[in-house]
Amino acid sequence: MDKSLIKILLVAIAINLVALCNGGITSPYVRGVDPSTDMPFNSDVFRPPKGYNAPQQVHITQGDHIGRSVIVSWVTPSEPGTNIIQYGKVHNKTEFEAHCNEVVTYKFYNYTSGFIHHCTIHNLQYNTRYFYQLGSGEVTRQFHFKTPPEVGPDAPYTFGVMGDLGQTYNSNETVEHYVSKGRGQAVLFAGDLSYADHYPFNDQRRWDTWGRFLERSTAYQSWIWAAGNHELDYIPEVLETTPFKPYTTRYHVPYEASGSTSPLWYSIKRASAYIIVLSSYSSFGKYTPQYNWLKQELPKANRSETPWLIVLLHSPWYNSYNYHYMEGETMRVMFEPWFVQNKVDIVFAGHVHGYERSERVSNIEYSIVNGKCTPVSNPSAPVYITIGDGGNIEGRANNFTEPQPDYSAYREASFGHAIFDIKNRTHAHFAWYRNLGKVADVGDSLWLHNRHWLPQ
Q1: Within 10 A of 367 (CB to CB), how many other CB atoms are there?
Q2: pLDDT tens digit string along 182-237?
Q3: Where is the signal peptide (predicted)?
């Protein structure tokens, strides 16, 4: 064959390969190779509050479907103590009391928990700051929170977004950046909390340290929880065969308010957002409880009332790292057509210990016989965000599939957090912040146009 013809053919092949694999940006930023190490038990951020049996590990989450209730949870280490929350709209002035509806303990292998309190405060006013007090006498502790605005299409609201946090020095950086900037009003958490299961027999003391570590945020604003694989705590060799036992005992969510039969999947309305939480590690095949619930739940999102439809889960559906590659594929096959049909705006996932943002793509046309196996642009599809970069002990995912696929708009092997800022019914701004020591630097950002109000 003529050499000039060979060159032409090679150029043509190269052009076609570029067209097929014209991916987005792989960030050139390279973080140092220092290991991700858990902070020791005697770290300042793990220190229990002073006083005998003082309430600790305080965390709150939304307590109903519409944002007028709050679940307050805490632990007393030695005895149940008081089960009353005193609260009101004026600092240091008690106006109301709420009584705990549950105080429990649990055992796990050779560990027995403290007394875990869960108390729901009902009938709160929207967009109002409340001060609340736990404990009694010399061990009284005071906190505050602000309720969201009334559910409505143009109610602005700002979410922090994190996943795969753990309790390393890097985790501490992430939390400090988020708290110090004060941008977020609530946190969407994409699973993998304490990483207690990194230790022999899933050392449950690491659940306690994690609860104290996060109290600087979780006691003051609602964290919306999704469960990850590190919440399974399943070790049958020591007769611990109840999946998610520590997680579901410690972290309560308002699942019954959305008709769910499990705390691992549920929905809430918050301001102008309809948030659906799914479980990547529970059955989701046809006719299972999660499948049946989601099938009925998605159409309930009234986009004239809550225009922003957000999904929170753990294992990503679109992932171009070599870590956990295609682990979310079976759930994607089951539910992606529903997401496109219902015009989900954005999906947050964790699991992969890095950051990645997708284009609006779908792969709903693919079947095993038609050969349409490449995701294609679809304006009705969500943006998929992988944010498993909180700082956990397993370290960063830093090995990518190459070439970068079309569906991947931006990816970076760093630790950090994100802010999802809803402006009104049509526009929201997303920004991802990488950790740079004592500062957080914007690594990626974009404006989102609402899929219902601005479908194109």
Answers
A1: 10
A2: 999 999 999 999 999 999 999 999 999 999 999 999 999 999 999 999 999 999 99
A3: 1-23
**Encoding tokens for residue 380?**
């009705």
User: Is 437 in contact with 360 (CB distance < 8 Å)?
Assistant: no
Q: What is the DSSP letter of 369?
A: T
Residue 18, pLDDT score: 35
Tell whether the model's pLDDT for residue 6 goes beyond 70.
Answer: no
Per-state percent for the chain, helix, strand, coil, to nearest 5? 20, 30, 50
Nearest to 332 by CA among 308, 361, 292: 361
User: What's residue 31's pLDDT?
Assistant: 62
**pLDDT band, very low/low/confident/very high, at 34 (cuts 50, 70, 90):** low
Known active-site residue 324 = yes
Q: Which two tokens stand for residue 106?
A: 């649990």
What is the C-alpha to C-alpha distance for residues 2 and 330, in angstroms, rounded to an integer?
A: 48
Helix (H, G, I), strand (E, B) or coil at 208: helix
Q: What is the model's pLDDT at position 32?
A: 60
290 phi and psi, to 5 degrees?
Answer: -65, -40
Burial group, residue 44, by CB count within 10 angstroms (0-12, 13-18, 19+) = exposed
Which of 248, 250, 432, 226 shows the shortest CA–CA distance to 310? 226
Indicate the CATH number for domain 153-191+264-449: 3.60.21.10
Give the length of the chain: 456
143 phi/psi in degrees, rounded to 5: -140, 180
> How far apart, in whole angstroms, are the C-alpha atoms of residue 108 and residue 208?
13
Active-site residue identified among 65, 117, 324, 452: 324
| 138-190 pLDDT per residue, tens | 899 999 999 999 999 999 999 999 999 999 999 999 999 999 999 999 999 99
**Cα(229)–Cα(192) distance, integer angstroms:** 7
**Percent of the chain whose predicted confidence (pLDDT) is above 70:** 94
> Which residues make beta-bridge pairs with 182?
none
Closest C-alpha among 264, 381, 375 to residue 312:
264
Residue 16, CA atoms < 13 Å, CB-side half-sphere: 6
Indicate the residue type of 2: D
Mean pLDDT of 269-281: 98
